[in-house]
Design a protein that fits this description.
The chain is about 0% helix and about 40% strand. The protein has a single domain, classed as Methylamine Dehydrogenase, Chain H (7 Propeller). The relative contact order is 0.15. It is mostly beta strands.
Length: about 400
């Protein structure tokens, strides 16, 4: 381990092998979710679109043409205070925004498509309604090809066997963006009332058996990489989108504590990166890690390494959460950085970190950014929530509570 590596330090604010270019609190609405996407406006400006963690704001567009001087060009309000728009993605100049309500039975719950070709004036194209007596709408979505929106959502005709299991995978055809329509769905057997199998056993922390990230890549458009929280990770065959089928399943819980969050395949290397999410303050759900899976035989994925983490005792009492969450997902769009050698991830009060996995059996940390607590943070610590890297190599990361946006350059 390098003597300068933050892995050997005790949790103080640190910047190592990154250069901080700017920070913007987004007009004091700096509580950010896990939706980040870059579009190029008609006039050539580069716009970073950001989802907010909670009300009152819906999404914010930031001109990052000059990453040293990010400028808010639009910021929109949610239709209701009882909802959030935690996830968004862009394909070309169409943006999909997820709407999830605090409780079942409320509206609006679903996702909305916007034309963002004129960033200052996002124009609603259509809304796909997922509301119902037992639905909270859409928590997460994936939209990269301009044709299909893959969502983790409830539905009016889906009643879960347990209230924590209320969201499942749905595939929505948006080739006519004015008329989105469902063409396929899949859920874990036993999680819907009426299934002919018993419900799955509850985990100790019981975060639920429900869909989260549902990633699909142009390199393998017939594959869905679906994370199902306490249910683990599924590789799905979606060559027939009306009938998704399980190819393989991987889980580490128990003995770990569930909340499988994101799966990112590295096709040329036969690997899958799988993240968990820390959801408990003071690392009460530790360890929450990023796992490397050998997927050369996709029917039998095997975990063999994790990304190195700093000592839990150095971070667990700094305030808020500590542990894995999001990674840069290599979205298959022209404005996103692509790499199967470097992984960028966010770890709440552990900041944002970069790892070299060129030797997958011995991943090593190569950069870290742990800023001081932003002004007004209710937990007294940074809570970096998501990270996106554009094709120029500019790194964007956001705070979950108050800090807004940070822009950085790699220095490694």
């Amino acid at each position: 381990m390098s003597a300068n590596s933050p892995l050997s330090q005790s949790g103080e604010p640190v910047i190592w092998n990154f250069k901080l270019l700017a920070q913007n609190d987004l007009g004091d609405f700096g509580g950010m979710g896990e939706g980040m996407s870059v579009t190029i406006a008609r006039d050539g400006r580069r716009i970073l679109w950001l989802a907010h963690e909670s009300a009152p704001k819906n999404f914010t567009g930031v001109d990052v043409s000059d990453p040293r001087n990010p400028k808010v060009v639009v910021q929109t309000d949610l239709p209701q205070a009882h909802m959030r728009s935690n996830s968004l993605e862009c394909a070309g100049n169409i943006m999909a925004v997820a709407y999830q309500t605090q409780k079942t039975g409320l509206k609006p719950a679903g996702f909305e498509l916007f034309d963002v070709s004129e960033p200052e004036n996002p124009r609603s194209i259509s809304f796909f309604d997922c509301s119902g007596a037992h639905s909270r709408g859409v928590h997460q979505l994936w939209f990269c090809d301009g044709e299909y929106v893959h969502i983790a959502a409830g539905a009016p005709d889906f009643e879960a066997t347990h209230p924590n299991d209320d969201q499942f995978y749905r595939c929505i055809d948006v080739r006519d963006p004015s008329k989105p329509k469902e063409i396929g769905r899949w859920w874990l057997s036993g999680t819907r009332k009426g299934d002919n199998v018993a419900p799955p056993p509850r985990h100790s922390l019981d975060k639920g058996y429900r869909a989260h990230n549902c990633n699909v890549y142009t390199q393998r458009p017939d594959r869905l990489y679906l994370c199902y929280l306490d249910g683990g990770m599924y590789v799905m065959d979606i060559s027939n989108k009306s009938q998704p089928k399980v190819v393989s399943h991987w889980t580490n819980s128990p003995p770990y504590t569930g909340f499988t969050h994101t799966a990112v395949p590295l096709f040329d290397r036969g690997l899958i990166l799988v993240t968990e999410e820390s959801t408990e303050d003071h690392a009460l759900d530790w360890p929450k890690l990023v796992w490397l899976l050998d997927a050369r035989d996709e029917q039998h994925p095997v975990s063999f390494a994790t990304l190195p983490m700093p000592p839990v005792d150095a971070y667990k009492d700094r305030g808020g959460r500590f542990g894995a969450h999001n990674i840069h997902e290599n979205p298959p769009v022209p404005t996103a950085f692509q790499s199967d050698q470097i992984v960028f991830g966010t770890f709440f009060n552990g900041g944002m970190r970069a790892f070299d996995i060129s030797n997958a059996y011995q991943p090593k940390e190569v950069a870290a950014f742990v800023p001081p607590a932003p002004a007004g943070s209710p937990v007294g610590a940074i809570q970096l929530n998501d990270v996106f890297v554009d094709e120029r190599g500019i790194v964007y990361t956001v705070d979950r509570l108050t800090g807004g946006l940070y822009t950085l350059e790699m220095d490694f």
